[in-house]
Amino acid sequence: MLAKRIIPCLDIKDGRTVKGVNFVDLRDAGDPVELAKIYSKEGADELVFLDISATEQKRKTLADLVYHVAENVNIPFTVGGGISSIEDVDILLKNGADKVSINSSAVKNPQLINDLVAKFGSQCIVVAIDAKQIDGEWVVHLVGGKVPTERKLFEWAKEVEKRGAGEILFTSMDHDGTKDGFANEALAKLSTELNIPIIASGGAGRKKHFTDTFIKGKADAALAASVFHFKEIGIKELKEELKENGIPVRL
Question: Which pLDDT score is estimated for 26?
């Protein structure tokens, strides 16, 4: 079995790391480059940077941040936020990103997935899916979870895989920031029905939640933000507990 990955997520707004609850009530969590260095030393397997204030004007700022992160860390990292073209991806990869994450742009233009995979390879392309339950169905949302779509989680995830994406980052908006655990039932269904890796996001609060998402949710990786940023869970201790529970991790 492949080692399960622990991935700190840094939401970036105006060059700073921020964190909220259910996608709102943001508070400052520190300098992204400094946090990246700490996580790299502590044993994180990968990092994800999501520019939640992404605009055309800020694209160069994000590219500069990516360059500085690449200079300071030696683990793979993914960058997302407002990416909507081959040019956007090209700039980020050339500045040192290992992968890019697309979300709203993929829903609006699914052919973008095919185009990016053809140009850069599936190993570089992560599709992020934000969804919440409405009347018992997982509905895909855009714009940081503000805009519901006609898309349903499982059918969209299957299409994403078919179009060549290398991974799916699934965030349960119902669980995001609540620290009550991941959406393991939905994650298990995704992992069972798809052949590409599924990254669990939204709901980490205790070390047990990571164990649960790897066992019950069948996730390939688990992503979290505030529990790492605010030192509620140490990555080394988390990995040691996972190993004690029989979950393969890199120590």
Answer: 67
Supply the residues annotated as catalytic: 11, 130
Distance between the two ends of the chain, CA-based, in angstroms?
A: 15
Among left, alpha and beta (phi > 0; psi -120 to 50; other), residue 22 is left
Higher-confidence position of 238 and 62: 238
Q: Which of 8-22, 47-61, 159-173 has the highest average model confidence (pLDDT)? A: 159-173
- The pLDDT tens digits for 84-100 are 999 999 999 999 999 99
* Contact between 44 and 8 (Cβ < 8 Å): yes
